[in-house]
Structures
1.
Amino acid sequence: MRNDLFLFGLFLTLMRLGFYHAADFKFTNVICKSYNESWFLIHNCRLKAVNRHKTSYNFNGTILYPGNHIIINIQLFKKENGYKPWLYKITFDLCRFLKKAYNPVAILVFKLFKDYSNFNHPCPFVGRQLINDLHLSYDALPLPMPTGEFLIEIDCFFDLKILLSTKLYFQIREDFTRS
Ligand SMILES: *[C@@H]1O[C@H](CO)[C@@H](O)[C@H](O)[C@H]1NC(C)=O
Ligand SMILES: *[C@@H]1O[C@H](CO)[C@@H](O)[C@H](O)[C@H]1NC(C)=O
């Protein structure tokens, strides 16, 4: 088991050093939806062009009643004749997670958002929710990914009812300028 983990780690490292190192990550579209606008208001959910290769994601919303029981569902999709689920889906309890980070995949995802948002505090979640110029580079991704078109869907359930859904589309291409 330990050997397998070691080999897997070595494989990931080699992937990073090798072919896929010269890749470009770009958000291509974003769609946010509130399922109850008297609880969650979306003011802004938009991509901004940084340069030809880069876009950043901005979000501004208001939670009108405190959320104390929040479940997050994250699913990655890859486009192949339509978007098909890719890798696995994660579900975690956000309030529990913020007390003690327990889900290793959620930790990786949370790390990507943390520095660009005001989400890094314990529950309840209420008031202004911001993501400010979130931009990612291929090298910052928690796992090496193939080239292609992807979608990450993040669904937030408050008191077990879906309240907010975010679909972030992105593209990974070989970056010939860097290879
Ligand atoms: C929307 O949220 C408010 C505040 O929590 C709640 O009172 C209301 O019942 C919700 N509406 C629906 C349709 O779930
Ligand atoms: C968020 O949206 C609200 C309402 O439109 C606005 O008053 C506020 O300035 C916005 N905040 C940011 C940081 O964009």
Note: The chain has one domain: 22-174.
2.
Amino acid sequence: MARPALVGVYRPAAPLFVAGSGAWLTDEAGRRYLDFTSGIGVNALGHASPVIRDAISGALECGLVHTSNLFRTSPGEALAEWLTSHSFADAVFFSNSGAEANEAALKFARRWARAADGEGRTGIVALRSGFHGRTYGALSATDRPAYRAPFAPLLPDVHFIDPLDGDAARRAITRSTAAVIVEPLQAEGGVRPLPAGLLARLRQICDEAGALLICDEVQVGLGRTGALWAHEAEGVSPDIMTLAKPLAGGLPMGATLVSARVAAALQPGDHGSTFGGGPLVAAVALAVCRTIADPTFLEGVRRRGARVAARLAAMRARPGPVREVRGAGLLHGLELDRPAAEVTTRALECGLLLCGAGPDVIRVMPPLNIEPGDLELGLDRLEEALA
Ligand SMILES: *Cc1c(COP(=O)(O)O)cnc(C)c1O
């Protein structure tokens, strides 16, 4: 195969996909694959979802794809209204990706800290094995030496703590901390749920130190764990939450949700995005959000998730490469005794698409509305790939 004229930062699998439907993708030779990656958590409603198709055609009918934030359009305002009425938040900033949503979160945190406290409160605390994106600010809060080293120096005043070290948070979060950024379930870093109680403890320590708590729910928010927001499981609310991957069902969109005190610190000109919150993506995102937030839909995610957990536990119990199974809802990780790539390659031969989460973890992340029969078939194929 000729090398495509693309910068070599990816190592895509061989199939060239030409069509999709539900949990299935079809390559140019007509071979069909079950998609347990959901485009890295983006295609929450699967491929060719009628919800998304209808929202796109509805938006196109009125002819508004983009106007910029110089002007008002109603879909973005309706989406912001929906997001604030279904979360802790009081206001929303829209962007185009997870990294951008986190850039905004980090900037807003420092902006708020400066308004609230003057100079000196600029620190950002992040967790080991976390992932927040590839742009400079997001990368600075990402604990992945291989992603960071080629691009140093990064943003100063970012401090990492080990989520398993019970005292680290109290030592690191001080009166010079603007914010703590955390994924309620670490996805890219190996599908690692936070230790029980850690999120609540971070909330308490942030309150005592006068710092903000940022939940990065770019991957685990909007139903992936079986709850609308992953932080619900710990019964705490952040001050800022970032969303992206599934938000517009496959169209690029990021959102930074903030509480009233953070919103109050933001002034015209403080931040911006040319594309953010455009009428087409916002209309699609509103349809996706309404679909996922339906209690029956979320119940379906939990039911499917319980089935995945049971079957993965059985795979682990058998002799084979699976060392540990972790996760929640429809995001599970299998830690292996060998490189993840060996199993993802083998799965591809079995007609199953999987992605890794670090060197020795594979991720099981089907669409949230996957047909139960497809779910079983994909798990059968996974079993075959592990054999
Ligand atoms: C994917 C991801 C990001 C980055 O999102 P992009 O859209 O790739 O910039 C940030 N945080 C988390 C938790 C993610 O999973």
Note: The pocket of pyridoxal-5'-phosphate is lined by residues 97-99, 102, 131-133, 183, 187-188, 216, 218-219, 244-245 (CB under 6 Å).
